[in-house]
Amino acid sequence: MKQSSPEAVSSSSSAPALSDHSQPSALSSSSSSSSSDKASSISTAAAAEDLAVGSRDGGGGAHECVTVERLGEFSAVCKWTVHNFPRIKARALWSKYFEVGGYDCRLLVYPKGDSQALPGYISIYLQIMDPRGTSSSKWDCFASYRLAIVNVADDSKTIHRDSWHRFSSKKKSHGWCDFTPSSTVFDSKSGFLFNSDTVLITADILILNESVNFTRDNNEVQSSSASSTISSSVVASPVSDALSGKFTWKVRNFSLFKEMIKTQKIMSPVFPAGECNLRISVYQSSVNGAEYLSMCLESKDTDKTVILSDRSCWCLFRMSVLNQKPGSNHMHRDSYGRFAADNKSGDNTSLGWNDYMKMSDFFGPETGFLVDDTAVFSTSFHVIKEFSNFSKSGGLIGGRSGSGSGSGSGSGARKLDGHMGKFTWKIENFTRLKDLLKKRKITGLCIKSRRFQIGNRDCRLIVYPRGQSQPPCHLSVFLEVTDSRNTSNDWSCFVSHRLSVVNQKMEEKSVTKESQNRYSKAAKDWGWREFVTLTSLFDQDSGFLVQDTVVFSAEVLILKEMSIMQDISDQETESNNAGSHIDTVWKRSSFTWKVENFLSFKEIMETRKIFSKFFQAGGCELRIGVYESFETICIYLESDQSVGSDLDKNFWVRYRMAVVNQKNPAKTVWKESSICTKTWNNSVLQFMKVSDMLEVDAGFLVRDTVVFVCEILDCCPWFEFSDLEVFASDDDQDALTTDPDELVDSEDSEGISGDEEDIFRNLLSRAGFHLTYGDNPSQPQVTLQEKLLMDAGAIAGFLTGLRVYLDDPAKVKRLLLPTKLSGSNDGKKATKSDESSPSLMNLLMGVKVLQQAIIDLLLDIMVECCQPSDGSSIGGSTDANSKPSPDENGAATPLESDRENGASESVPFPVYERLDSGVDEGGSASAVQSSDMNLLGRPEKALPGQPICPPETSAGASEHVPIHSKTKWPEQSEELLGLIVNSLRALDGAVPQGCLEPRRRPQSAQKIALVLDKAPKHLQADLVALVPKLVEQSEHPLAACVLLEQLQKPDAEPALRIPVFGALSQLECGSEVWERVLFQSFDLLTCSNDEPLVTAIDFIFKAASQCQHLPEAICPC
């Protein structure tokens, strides 16, 4: 049978984790066991212990014979032959005593099982006694043993089990109540019975030859050493004041256990440390293919008679293997943690190292750690002296003292299900702890308080006495919240906490910081790395350190909440293209968030926000946020922007939000909006006045509960222009070629393949665009999904992304060069590719709602191309990220009319990061996680006076992003200007006015003037012809003046007059402007000849007709 292994141990927080070992199959006599546990062992508390004082001869009504094979002083094999075994009527049998290592040993067997066994099982135990005295004597010894029922016919079928145990006057018996089914042994054909009724039971026993020494820091020594006969020793009764000391454990026959520790462990006697009894455990582990000696400190209390089962202590300890070779160095390792008597509280029962030291170093003959088969292990420890209490609504729930002098029990708090409480934690001898850490050069050490429970969550304070930075400058304080029920890995709770370092002289000068955070398994502690300076803390006059004692407190309020995610219905959206189908099936979903102690957080929401846990919709993580601004309840939806989330993925999400009327669902208030998870992350919906919502009869607040619902109406991936590089491989990018050599017509030139065209189509579809061909396969067109056409925020976000993307000439060139498309709605390829092929920019301008904005963007790029090398774009551009001024609470200010009318409509203003403010004069930065020591890569937290917000989502904001050149545009300006001119020439006439689109940008005429003045001569005619397309109608009069100024320049080319007159005739101006244009045109007649003269005369008559000056036109003189 598979042998058992020692129990599990956990690593210390400063050391690699110890590997788990399976639960031991043998338990002590004081243990309890489920009858269904096949591997458990129980000694019979009544029968086995009664047998201890019985006859020293074997008995129980059976003929038996005991032989002992001694393998040394501390090792023996006992063979117990029991006759007439199947027919024994006695409940129990016991062998004669035999001596091993100075102790009396014997075997106990229950043929039909003891009181703890399952029916039909045999129970077998090993019992060890100290022959020197009565059962009241203080003694113990450690033994490793194997019990077996021998199969005489086939030894490979022998049933055996292995275990270890520290035997004492209170724990004399150890073994298995369910050793093996009796039917297996009683079957005459199975091979266990010989001579028809005889059974052979064996026991291989190893006794540890050991001695211990325990010294407290006050030099009061309790020691014991033994002769070769009595090798074990014990520490005297626990001393509650043993806060610091040293325990030394000497093992004199270590090699005897060399094989045993590969699967089991040896452990020392216990010694007192604060409220706990600790012991050293040693075993062997394989780490990364190498064999290591493992050593840990254990606190699990096997004495179940102890009343204070919740006792614990925080301990800083050093574990050592002493080098017995003179002049050699000992092996030391330091660690720390909170020990508990059992693991029910979630604290450690074992801390140490799997890889303490290599076995080759330990056993090396020249290393000095194992001399004459003797090894010496020791641990020195320091336990903090602490006192803590927990109160709810001002009432004291319970308190404890680390020295054992306190009264009450901290476990009382665990039975309360309240969601608010205050925990106070006093640590004495704080300076000594600081000095000890400094002396041992221990950095990053944290002290964890006892646990207290609020809202069914386990909470505790975490303090870093020397902070988390180097050199040490600040004390760090955090609150840890965990799930006491361990119900699932995705648990989450929202917590408002106020942490303090109490000023014991003037409480109003306490340093207090407050924050609100959502705790989870991945983010279980939040707080401040720079809570208070160490200089201030240890200043004797500051009041924080009084009689070497520091007091911490935590006021905790947990949101009582419930959330449900459910599907609403299936909604199929289908887009039909002439050449292909892009079908997506979107399942609408609804997230319901019920807040059951809403009024407790009302004051918090006036300056900060509460938010739900994240829920998943369409591939993105979303959550609901709620706060109060100008006495109005504001709700928003935002995506997960934390480290670890997939920030590269961008989604457009359309949703509607509700505050549910729980009395009359028909009065539930719904509002609809949309976000883009990466580009514009949140938009705020303003609902009713808070006072209206809290009305008793309104139905929104029922029994302190408010219900919020978010329905996700639609969700699709959102296009990022960087995808052109990121999502297209080197081979795929041929579909979007920018190499001019590949654009030259040749007989071999063909359109891209179907696979390559799919790449281009997929890139467009990420933005909600579809590529179609209509009646002309050579002229692809782009259409926008209808669901985005009416979303001004989505269009603004797209245009913002386009402007941000076009930040250098190479990217502009990429979008302006013609693409080689196969234009196939019947699977055929186009056989030619020329400059009339559409560019990506042309395809995007085919969407009328985007056309004006893209034209403005191209005009800005032309201005950039015409600027000097060290210049920047001309005025008129404002930052798209300009924000409304936050109010004093950090919330964005709604429109004035909305405040007056109760904010009945959605307003596209951003959510500002609420600022955490504390009571201390220096303010309070946002709380962070203690485990996140690497600040690089983390999103910056809000600082006072520096609110965080996404780009504004109004329709016009996106056009206000200036082009900031990172390279010198003029180096490529002529080529880019030519590409832009070709792209704009493809537009059909002037841009239609009045279509649904973002507003135009100002100063277009001023920009045209700069471009015409600086552009190459060979492009001027084409640029002049484009003026009606580039200038909005309100600036047509200015554009007319700009065009005439071009003709009046001394170096003006005569050939420019025809395009100028053509452009002027397309402009819409008033009679006063046309009159001015008419008289300025007369000056051009004197220097015009041939065709320009005819064109000039024709234009003069047109201008004259516009301002009723035909007589002057006929006779200009």
Task: Describe the 3D structure.
The termini are far apart. The chain folds into six domains: 31-207, Apoptosis, Tumor Necrosis Factor Receptor Associated Protein 2, Chain A (Sandwich), CATH 2.60.210; 237-383, Apoptosis, Tumor Necrosis Factor Receptor Associated Protein 2, Chain A, CATH 2.60.210; 386-558, Apoptosis, Tumor Necrosis Factor Receptor Associated Protein 2, Chain A (Sandwich), CATH 2.60.210; 562-718 and 884-901, Apoptosis, Tumor Necrosis Factor Receptor Associated Protein 2, Chain A; 723-878 and 959-1001, no CATH class; 1031-1117, no CATH class. The strands form nine sheets. Strands 1, 4, 5, 6, 7 and 10 form a six-stranded antiparallel beta sheet that branches. Strands 13-12-14-22-19-20 form a six-stranded antiparallel beta sheet, with no helix packed on it. Strands 24-23-25-33-30-31 form a six-stranded antiparallel beta sheet, with no helix packed on it. With 1117 residues, it is α+β, with helices and mostly antiparallel strands. The relative contact order is 0.05. The protein is elongated, with a radius of gyration of 42 Å. A hairpin with a 2-residue loop joins strand 37 (615-617) and strand 38. Residues 870-884 have a biased composition (Polar residues). This is MATH domain-containing protein. It comes from Juglans regia (English walnut).
